[in-house]
Each structure stands twice: as structure tokens, then as C-alpha cells.
């Protein structure tokens, strides 16, 4: 896949904070952005998001950063595994 | 953390499906080997078995029928209830084998669905454990373009596909399993292709936030997940049920349930609540119309703790 040939870009703490803020706003989470650990799982245990929450986050980041998330991507499990991996993905793929 | 009030739905998720699958397995074998008339005879044995030896199911049946019939429940009512359940499951075998010639279908509101499908943006089709959802296959006989992808819990998906493959290998259904991180991205993709995405919205496979509604004069709790999904993906929702009327007759009903296409984010929760109440009203309406078609053989009106949707502001 084309995605795998791109050099991975690490996200900055700033971007992670921004994504955390977006998630909180989008899902009405009752936490502060700096309380979301960058490496804690987003889905299931951890932040406790369900697959509809994940969809909501996916729609939101697609719009905000101009990227495409596809259902057939084997990377989804990894992308949504934590705030850090989601932010890393955004940093690599963002078009705006 | 989000404050989600959840309930343990272990019994919901397992008991009815297990008996459902066991019955389907037995009936498939009989129907394919012995023919419809003998198979129909066996349905009476199954109904008798449930009336006599399944006190849990009997209690649930009586409890429900008291609400739906609004009169004292007789043994014959419970017998008819179990027989209807067995008959609809049995007919799946023939529907999956495209033997639509065996049945007499009256269809109400099909234009509603067809119009929304023609728009090409995808439609949600919400059913319940009320009558037969499988009769949707009968509509596909007219045009092969009617593609329905069912959303369901992964465990049930595997069992059902194994069963369908056993009945008719060509009938394997397009199923989107819940519980994956990208389950919802798959749902969105199917909708974008113009597919109909179907689900049974009266039970939750796991921990889902419940919303209190009124069905048959008492409070029951419905999972809000299916409605959140439709609201988020901004699609129209059509209610569907295939009510068994006895003999070989079914009445298929399509009713407009909601349209989230143009609902702005700020109004989403209100629209979601309106939709779930409309769904409850439709369940109420059809339970009264054809009382023996309700196939939730557990205490649906249980006194579970409930909350309002956590996202309402």
C-alpha cells in the first residue's frame, strides 16, 4: 500500500493536544485534554470509546485535517489504538 | 471518563439467540429432508415443547401477551405465540432458498423505501425481533439490485452465515460485524455505495446506553446505538417488519422512521430521541395489530437502570 512507503512522521505534543481537544468537544467527554494519556487505548478499555464514538472521531478528523479513512485499511486497528498513533497518522496524512 | 450507564445484557444476548439457532438448525434439517408439510407438523411439537418445558420462555410469553392482548392469557395464546415464532424461523429456510412462490406477501409502503434507495445515498432499515426480517429477500426477487447489508454482533454473524451456507451457499448475506474498531467505517462505506443497511434495533449485543420508552403501556428500555449511528451518518431510516399472518401469509410493512440527512449537529440529540420514540410507537402499533409476532422471549420490560443519553446538552 502506498501509505506504507511514506516515511512516518511523529506527531508533536501540540498536535496531540489539539486532537485531544477535538475529541473532547466532539464526544462531550468529561475530561481535560491533558488527562488523556497519549498511549492509553482509545477503544474499549482506556478512554472507553465504542465503535460509534470511533466513527465520530474518524468523521471529525477527516474533515478537520482533510484525510481519508477507509474501512478496508488494515491500519485502522493501529491508527485508533491511542491518541499518539492517531496524531501520528494525522501528521503523516494531513492535507490541511 | 464518559458517564455511561450500562446494564449487563448477558442474558439478552445469549438465551434467545441460542434457542433461535438451535431451532433453525433442527428445522433446516427437517425442512430440507422431509418437506414442508411434515416440517409444519414438527412446528406443533416445538410449540408444545416450549409451552410444557420452558418455564422461562412461557413466563416471558405470558408477561408480554398480557400487555398486548389486554385480556387474561390462555394456554392457547402462548401456544400460538410459540408456534408463530417457530413458523417464521422455519420459513427462513424457504426464503433463503428463494422459494417465494410458496408464500403470499402483502407489501405496504414499499414506495417509501424505493424512493429513498433511488436517491443513492444509502438507507438504514431498522427492524426488531418482531415478525420476520428475512422476508426482505422476497423484495429482492423483483430487482437484483436491492442489496442489504446486515449489521449484527460478530458471534451471531458467524453463526448465521454458517447456517445460511448450509441452507443455500448462494444466499450468504453481506454482514457487518459489530465490535471492530472500524465496524462503523464499513457501515458508512456500504451506505456510500447506495446499499441498504439493516439491523434489529430492539436488543443490544453488549453494553449500550439505554433510553426509556413506552411500549404497550409500560416502560421499556431501548438501546440508542442504532439511532446514534444513523444520526451520525446522516441517513434516512425506514422501519421494516414482516408480520406472519398464519398459513403462508405475510404482511410486510415499511414505515418512515426518521431522516437525519439534514439534521445539524446541535439538533442531533433531539432528533435521535424523536426517532427512538417513533420506533417504540411502531413496535407498540404492530404488537397490538399482530400480537403473536413478538419474539423477545425474555422480560423486555425489566426494571433496568436507565439514563438519558449522555450526550444531550
From TrEMBL, chain A:
Domain Carrier, residue spans: 10-94
InterPro entries registered for this protein in UniProt: ACP-like_sf, PP-bd_ACP
SUPFAM superfamilies in the cross-refs: ACP-like (SSF47336)
Family matches, as Gene3D superfamilies: ACP-like (1.10.1200.10)
Family matches, as PROSITE patterns: CARRIER
Organism domain of life: Bacteria
Protein name according to UniProt: Acyl carrier protein
Species: Sulfuriferula multivorans
UniProtKB/TrEMBL annotation, chain B:
Localization in the cell: Cell inner membrane
Keyword Transferase attributed: yes
Keywords: Acyltransferase, Cell inner membrane, Cell membrane, Membrane, Transferase
BP GO annotations: glycolipid biosynthetic process
GO-annotated molecular function: acyltransferase activity
Presence of the UniProt keyword Phosphoprotein in the record: no
Superkingdom assignment: Bacteria
CC annotations in GO: plasma membrane
One Pfam family recorded for the sequence: Lip_A_acyltrans
Protein name, UniProt field: Lysophospholipid acyltransferase
Species for this entry: Sulfuriferula multivorans
